Amino acid sequence: MSSTADNEVDELFDVRNSYYLGNYQQCIKEGQRLKATDPKVLLEKDFYVCRSYLAQKKYKVVLEEKLPEELSCIKVLAEYLSIPSKKCGSSNFGTHLEINALKIHTYLTMYRNDLALKELKVMQDKDEDHTLTQLCSAWVHIANNVDKLNEAFYTLQDLIDKYGSTPMLVNAQVAVLIAQDKYEEAWDLLQDTAGDSEDTLINNMVTAGRLGKGNEVYNRILSQLQEIQVRGKYLQNYQEKAKDFDNLVAIYANK
C-alpha cells in the first residue's frame, strides 16, 4: 500500500502501528475513529482493519464486509483461512518494510540467522526508528541468543513505553527471559500482563514445567490451550511426543 509523503501528517500512523504491535482491537478502533477524506487513506485504513480482523480469526466479519475491488485479496485470504484443513499463517504484504519483516520471519523460521541479520541491516538503512525495524531487531537478537538478549529486551520495553503493552511484546520479552534462564521473572511477567493468547499459554507451559509448578497447574494451562488451538503446531508436536513416550513406556514395561 502507498505511504504518506514525508512532509505530510501520517493520518494512518496509529492504525498501522497498532497492527504492527499486535494490538489488533486498537487498530480497529483507530480505524473507526479516523476522520480522513482521501480515498487512498481510507482504502489503506480498511486494509489494516481487515487484516486485524483476520489476525483475531474473525473471518466472517471480513467475508461479510463490502470491500472495494482493490481489497478483494483480503476476502480471498479470509475464505482460505476460514477452512480449517487449509488454515495457515497469513502473509504480510504491503509496504517495503513489511516485506523485509516477512523475509526476516521466514529466514528465522529456516534457522538462517545470517540472512536475517543481512535483511535487518537493509531495514535499518531504510528507517532505523520504524516500529517494524525495532521489532525485527528484537526478533533477530532473540534468535541469535548470544550477546544481544538484553538489548532485545530493552528494545521491546521501549516499544511498550511508547505505545503500550500488547501480548506480542510481552511474550517476546518472556522469550528473552526464558533464553536467559530467568524462569521466575518470565512466569511473573506472564501472570501480570500477557493475557491469554496462544503464545502466552505456550510460554506459561514452558515456564511452569521449568519451575516445577506441578501437574495441576500444567494441565490447567494445557486445557486452556486445547480450547483455543485445536489444530495448532505446538499441540500437534506435544501430542506426538506424548504418544512416543507412551510407546516407550509400553515397550520397556513388557521387558
Features:
disordered N terminus, 255 residues, single chain, Serine Threonine Protein Phosphatase 5, Tetratricopeptide repeat, mainly alpha
Any overview of this molecule?
It contains 14 helices and no strands. Among the domains are: 71 residues; 88 residues, Alpha Horseshoe (Serine Threonine Protein Phosphatase 5, Tetratricopeptide repeat). The protein is an all-alpha fold. It is found in: Cytoplasmic vesicle, COPI-coated vesicle membrane; Golgi apparatus membrane.
State the gist of this model.
With 255 residues, the chain is mostly helical.
Question: In the CATH classification, which architecture of the domain at 167-254 applies?
Answer: Alpha Horseshoe
Structural class: mainly alpha
Q: Tell me the number of strands.
A: 0
Task: Enter the CATH topology name of the domain at 167-254.
Answer: Serine Threonine Protein Phosphatase 5, Tetratricopeptide repeat
